[in-house]
Amino acid sequence: MSRHRLYRCAVWVGLVLAVGEQIELGCVRAAEPGGELVIKLKAARFELYARAPEYSEGPTWRDGELFFCSGSLMRVAKDGKVAKYLSMNPAGTVLRGDGHLLICDNKHKALLDLSPEGTLGVLADEFEGKPLNSLNDLTIDAQGAVYWTDPDGSSAAKPIGNIFRIRPDGTVSKVATGLAFPNGLDVDPKGEFLYVIESQSKKILRYRDADRR
Description:
By secondary structure, the protein is mainly beta.
């Protein structure tokens, strides 16, 4: 089995294509970086931080430790040792402001909450009385609402993917559907837009008023 690696970089760069509200409003090609950003990019250096057991995704830092998804929920301890932390099938993690680690888990088909003390709880495992189909990636907006993508079974020929949201009061709702494998997602700092990567269409979709739907 080939061994995969986790790398840490001093500079993070994002590229966004503007698409909107289930229909494409247009695409914008990002300008080439210039000025101080170019200097930072040239100075960026990668270092091997830890060796992952297999394909890995969904990393989140918490209190000097790195959690990531790789067959199970894995943890890179402060001493650099990599070990299985919880036996599950996670696809994404995100850290809440109170130190709780939220996890998209497909073993239990649930959005899970791992407290700083190590207690594992369930935030959502059903919608309208039916079990959740799948959970891929997730994000949190400024009001504390959690969004996650449900891509399983969807494709360009069969766009049946969904995006769900759970509010702080526990209310779960479907905020988008008809998607061709929705994947990563995030809310902009002002809470005006929800951005979603639609992998099968190779687009980034933008939904308005993400936190007020």
